[in-house]
Here is the input.
Amino acid sequence: MLDMSNAAIADLEVSDFGICQAVMVFGEDDHAVGAYNFKVGTLVGTLCVLCGFDPAEASRWAEAASLHDLGKLWIPPDILLKRGSLSAKERRVMEDHVVFGYTYLKHLSTLAAEMALSHHENFDGTGYPEALKGDEIPMSGRMVRLCDVYDALRTERPYKKAMTHEEAVEIMLHGDDRIRPEMFDPELISLFERHHRQFEACFNC
Ligand SMILES: [Fe+2]
Here is the structure.
């Protein structure tokens, strides 16, 4: 558990705050709930380069994005890893991971905290925690949203199988019962559509 008075925290290089530093401060993800996500980080780095970021800045955003689900460390694993659908109460508890992540990261990395808080906002205003819409959502959160959904579709979980790249692309571009293309920033989903093979290569590396 984070102790903000811990002098060791003051020695951290905030601009490079990433998984290694976070594990030092917050500990390992003992229950494998996905609190640290290197894949989403590298996917966001790829998206940043496609958006024209210079390599150093893309790398910094990738580091920060790898911590977007840090708040899951404070959510009961039996909720996060539950097979089958969540009750309304369980869903509210699960959704708190964005606020926990923001709260614990805000003094360590402004960018990572911003990503933690906004990565479940949807471009069409149907997300959480604030139901922000369009440009109200920070660009960092819009980027993580797209990469996080792709990663979630491609990844096996205790309660679901992994999809192929082609299946994931089809759902992100055309939707299913849970995903709608309108959830994503139109410019980012357009980039994804044109360069999806780069995301596949990044995911497989
Ligand atoms: Fe999340």
User: Anything to note?
Assistant: The chain has one domain: 7-204. The chain has a mean pLDDT of 91. The domain at 7-204 is CATH 1.10.3210.10 (Hypothetical protein af1432). Residues 69, 97, 119-120 surround fe (ii) ion (CB under 6 Å).
